[in-house]
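Continuing the series of single-chain predictions for the mutant panel. This is the parent chain; the variants come on the following pages.
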Amino acid sequence: MLTPYRGMVLVVRASGDPLALTDAIRKAIHSVDPQQAVSRVETMDQIVRASFAQRRLVLTLVGLFAGAALLLVALGIYGITASTVAQRTRELGIRVALGADARRVIGTVIGQPTRLIAAGLLLGLAGTWLLGRFARGLLYDVAPTDPLTLISVSLVLLGVGVVAGYVPARRATRVDPMVALRSE
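Parent structure:
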């Protein structure tokens, strides 16, 4: 009598749908040993997918946390920039009242946070290029220096900086010049 061995694996190469051969494989196994149990039939794609399931879960969570971090950074940039520009509302209103071009004032206001964000992005991108090789082992099917990801995140942050400066600056340049002059 044959003693069953736990954990035995049979690998079959198929040219068509591998699951279509399940019954034929079971019959072939039972023709050799009728008491041999066939407990699980899986395709190689399913086995490979299952082997990467934990890594995929971890990377999905990392992606979600990265998205949340990007949102928090964007909100922080907007809040700080909007607050700084709002504190300068009187100054900007006086500039417009004294004849400064509103577009030039808005451009000046937008330029300040945009330069700071650009400097931060350059430092961050340099750090990404330098330290990206350490994250390479954690990533599957994407490079740590993926240009599409780096460019899109950079554009989002620059866009937030521009909007954060534009909205309050536009509001400040629309202040009635007489009100701005009287407030000082």
